[in-house]
Amino acid sequence: MPSDPMLHGLDAEQRAAVTTLASPLAIVAAAGSGKTTVLTRRIAYRSAHGTATPQHVLALTFTREAAAELKRRLRRLDIREPIEAGTFHGVALRLLRDRALAANHAPPHVANDRLRLAREVASELKLQVEPYGALADLDWAKARMVTPDRYEGAIRITRRRTSLPPARFADFAAAYERLKRRRGVVDFDDLLTHTIEALRTDRPWAEGVHWRYRHFFVDEVQDLNPLQHAMLEALRAGRPDLCLVGDPRQAIYGWNGADPTTLAEVEVRYPGVTVVALTSNYRCSPQVVRAGAAALAASGQHDDSESRQPGAATVLVQQHVDEAAEAQAVARHLRGLLHHH
Fold it and tell me: Do 36 and 19 share a structural domain?
């Protein structure tokens, strides 16, 4: 067993992912393989061994809860120096606020009622459209970096169902941007586009940001959209110290513009990348892992993960007419289990 406390309790694949000096690095982590543990231990291991300086680390997560958990785990590993961890939007907001304050400008104000803005735009354009759906269309286009003039072609290619009439998308998007400017507000994706633009055009500020962030760790890479990927590349500025963690088989945000090919095609996107696979599933029974592999195979994907748990009950497969019927069936099944226990 390794004597280094940063490696305590890790299997051989996990130890390899934590200790490799390779960069850039992609860790393809099967479900239940200890992804968060490996990501945290790698940051801690590199910090403890002097190959990364904590104050120059940036860990990008998909949720604020994940960022908070990563920081808690690092503290438990006795990493006391501050490590910045946050979502793409959270990091972008902090950077833009710092930049505004340094220039004695007002910091960005994030709109807190986008539905009201969307309703006003729909009313102005005399469009009968559900505001939430209209915002979803806007967010998808911005996340995919699809400009209004390319929108109709993009939704044809992706077969995306839209709320806004495609021919009116450009009008709606332009009116929405005008209204935000009049109100002096931005939305969440504006934070990313403004950060990217500032990094491209404000060279002194960009140099300071690049000095501050030197070691990049990115969680749930399969759920990144092209806009988030562009922000990562603007922050990284071509430097190789990058660790990507995720699993293209667990992508769940395609409806919102996510692009799982970042990991699926990682060797094309990042020439010279080292790929380390975590294939042991410590969460699920063999029956569940086999059922998941069968479902993936039916969609043309391969899963070579293996369960490290004892055998359990056979997986029950059911088919329902819609989501409501599915939810009702699950509730009935749970009531039955509670009744018998």
Answer: yes
